[in-house]
Input
Amino acid sequence: QVQLVESGGGLVQPGGSLRLSCAASESLFRTMGWFYEIPGKQRELVAAITTDGTTDYADFVKGRFSISRDNTKNTVNLQMNNLRPEDTAVYYCNGPVTRWGDFYSPGRYWGQGTQVTVSS
Output
């Protein structure tokens, strides 16, 4: 049973930055992702990264967020810059993520989630 543990969420003012980290108990899956969830809505992909470092982002975070991974430390990070109030959500680390064309399907392993609140 793979365990994913997120950290790094919190309260930040608009325009600020946060760095989320996800530590896996075993080797990372080929594709890892960060998803976000707003109350009443389905979890959606924020960013995904493959073993070779290929990345993909939701349109609303392109140019602001950056996903990275360290395969030796079994960690996946999400650098969030220029945060906006609409980025407020619970963020989840997930794997193994599957890509179906332009759609990403989450895998069976989720972290516990970390709250990100962007507010002045």
